[in-house]
Amino acid sequence: MLKKKKAYVVAVVGATGAVGNEMVATLEQREFPVERLRLFASERSEGKALEFEGSEIPVETLKEDTFKGIDIALFSAGAERSKIWAPVAAQSGCVVVDNSSQWRMDPGVPLVVPEVNSRDLKWHKGIIANPNCSTIQMVVVLKPIHDAARIRRVVVTTFQSVSGTGKKAMDELLQQTTDLLNFREVKCNVYPHQIAFNCLPHIDKFLENGYTKEEMKMVDETKKIMGDNSIRVTATTVRVPVFRGHSESINIETEKKMSADDARGVLSAAPGIVVFDVPEKNVYPLAIEVSGKDETYVGRIREDESIENGLNLWIVADNLRKGAALNAVQIAEKLSEMA
Ligand SMILES: NC(=O)c1ccc[n+]([C@@H]2O[C@H](COP(=O)([O-])OP(=O)(O)OC[C@H]3O[C@@H](n4cnc5c(N)ncnc54)[C@H](OP(=O)(O)O)[C@@H]3O)[C@@H](O)[C@H]2O)c1
Question: Is the dihedral of CA 103, 106, 110, 116 positive or negative?
Answer without folding.
Answer: positive
